């Protein structure tokens, strides 16, 4: 009895399970049927998937704002990067331009310097050629025994002027000799005019002086008047010194301006140097005595050009030779 009842119960359970199973299958089938209803037709499947992709790719309104905002930020970043790159390129170009400008300026300066240097050298060479082609003329003035003729011979390089004052030479108002400086073959051309000294106030001296003035005015081409001083004659304050200078002052225009004073017996030998030191005779003393004499003649605030040259120097003595070269170079470049 119990077995029969259990079998019925089992049978009922079995029916219930079967019904559930059929119900589940029916649900699954209905799902498949619903799925089949939603699926596109086979001939339009490609269009369907294309629409699905488009719908998936299309952003929402919020996504659009983010998208365009991101796009603007990217564009701004690209613009800033472009400006930075342009700034770098401009800076490089500017530096390159500045370097080229500096190089151009330096090139122009160097070229101008070279041109000016070349012109300067050409002018110096031209002046040198003109200087040697031009003849310099000197007029020797002063008292007898002042060393005028000796200084003239020194300039010419030979014993051409009569230093013994023969009767024939004293009868002439002046002696003119052409030559070259120091007698060198390629030396500067010079003309030396040696006047007669004026030691007396007799008629003969004034006649010679007048003839000299006439000769010089007839041939006015002379570069300088060289007034040769004798140191002892200047120290002794000989009255004839003033007389001579007054005569030359009236005879020559701008006499003091065109005159070089030369003390031609200023020996640089050690014995003579010691002797002058004992007598307190120095360059400043001689200069002051000459200024005093020129003031007495009538020159106001005289500032004469004076050179101390030893016309009797010993060329074998290096000290005397050196001092002579130094003093004569200053005289020649005056």
UniProtKB/TrEMBL annotation:
Q: Which InterPro entries match?
A: G_AIG1 (IPR006703), P-loop_NTPase (IPR027417)
Q: What's a Gene Ontology MF term here?
A: GTP binding
Q: Does the keyword Oxidoreductase apply?
A: no
The membrane spanning regions, by residue number, are 88-110
Residue span, AIG1-type G domain: 138-263
Q: Which UniProt keywords apply?
A: Membrane, Nucleotide-binding, Transmembrane, Transmembrane helix
Quote the Pfam families the UniProt record gives.
AIG1
Name of protein: Aig1 family protein
Originating organism? Stylonychia lemnae (Ciliate)
Question: Gene of origin?
Answer: Contig1838.g1991
């Amino acid at each position: 009895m119990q077995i029969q009842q259990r079998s019925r119960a089992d049978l009922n359970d079995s029916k219930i399970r079967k019904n559930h199973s059929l119900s589940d299958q029916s649900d699954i089938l209905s799902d498949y049927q619903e799925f089949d209803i939603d699926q596109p037709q086979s001939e339009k499947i490609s269009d369907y998937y294309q629409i699905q992709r488009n719908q998936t790719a299309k952003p929402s309104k919020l996504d659009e704002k983010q998208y365009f905002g991101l796009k603007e930020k990217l564009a701004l970043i690209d613009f800033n990067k472009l400006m930075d790159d342009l700034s770098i390129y401009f800076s490089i170009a500017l530096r390159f331009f500045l370097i080229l400008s500096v190089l151009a300026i330096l090139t122009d300066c160097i070229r101008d310097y070279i041109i000016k240097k070349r012109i300067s050298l050409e002018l110096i060479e031209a002046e040198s050629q003109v200087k040697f082609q031009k003849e310099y003329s000197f007029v020797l003035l002063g008292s007898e025994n002042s060393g005028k003729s000796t200084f003239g011979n020194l300039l010419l390089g030979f014993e051409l002027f009569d230093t013994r004052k023969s009767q024939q030479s004293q009868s002439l108002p002046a002696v003119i000799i052409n030559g070259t400086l120091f007698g060198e073959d390629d030396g500067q051309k010079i003309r030396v005019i040696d006047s007669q000294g004026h030691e007396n106030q007799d008629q003969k001296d004034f006649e010679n002086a007048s003839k000299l003035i006439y000769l010089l005015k007839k041939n006015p081409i002379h570069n300088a008047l060289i007034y040769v001083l004798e140191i002892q004659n200047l120290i002794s304050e000989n009255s004839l010194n003033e007389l001579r200078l007054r005569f030359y002052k009236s005879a020559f225009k701008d006499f003091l301006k065109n005159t070089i004073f030369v003390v031609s017996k200023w020996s640089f030998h050690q014995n003579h140097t010691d002797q002058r030191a004992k007598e307190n005779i120095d360059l400043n003393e001689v200069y002051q005595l000459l200024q005093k004499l020129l003031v007495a003649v009538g020159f106001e605030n005289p500032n004469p050009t004076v050179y101390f040259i030893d016309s009797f120097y010993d060329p074998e003595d290096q000290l005397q030779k050196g001092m002579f070269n130094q003093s004569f170079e200053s005289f020649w470049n005056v």
